[in-house]
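Figure caption, in words: inputs first, then the predicted bound structure.
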Amino acid sequence: MSWDEKPVVVTVAPTGAEVTRADNPALPHTPAEIAADVVACAEAGAAVCHLHVREPDGTPSSRAELFVEAVELIRARTPIVTMVSTGGAVWMPIDDRLTGLDAAPDLAGVETGSMNFGEDAFVTVPADARRVVERARELGIGLETECFDVGHVVAAVRMLERGELPAPLRANLVFGVPGGIDASPEALDAMLRPLPPGAHWSITAVGRHQRRLLALALLRGAGGIRVGFEDAVYLRRGVLASSNAELVADACELVQTLGRRVAQIDEARDLLACPVRAGAASA
Ligand code: KMH
Ligand code: ZN
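Bound structure (zinc ion present):
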């Protein structure tokens, strides 16, 4: 199948760890709110959800029970691919970033390098990355590398080559985080260069260049794109999104406008080599 015939996996990142209700009042906090958003996003075209959890007051959390509750509520209502963050929030120690794995999601993110993150340091040393990979392996959870700069992509590929990261390589390339690579066409070239042929790559972009960079990546053969309040709370300049589902619907329209097709959830599972877990809702 040529790149333009390949369906595009749309991921929603509904809550993240940095955005607040002061930024967008529709931000989901509780597992029930997150699950309701994810179900609506699946109906709008999302095939994967990238999950962080929050305390009821909105504080980013690492409580395993919240991850378990969110994943269970989602699985009961939609077969969407579940992915937990192990990036957490910048202040979380690595032990706290592993708790989402207790929810037995389909996939987990793994950071393969460190960086500044705005005014903070977001640290993942190689031993941390190996811990995430080992724990995910033990639990039969697939991995997606979260790469915020070229060195993170290179490190992920080296881990793959050394057998430290299981194949297939799923790489989410993130642009525009202050401290990471910028959101420019040249940056996209630089992030793609180290990837081996056949890697599944998706793109996340934050800030005002988001839409342009997603469009560019779709025309360069991106296997996936990510949207949601974690990355942007605006639909257009000056227009707040009313919900995560509105952002997903808008992203799906962009995919189609550019002559590509949005992947159904079962297609996404094939593309991501991510089988259905026993007990999960069917399509
Ligand atoms: N909240 C950021 C510090 C991820 O989920 O993998 C990390 C993050 C990346 O959101
Ligand atoms: Zn995240």
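Residues 43 and 90 are 32 Å apart (CA to CA).
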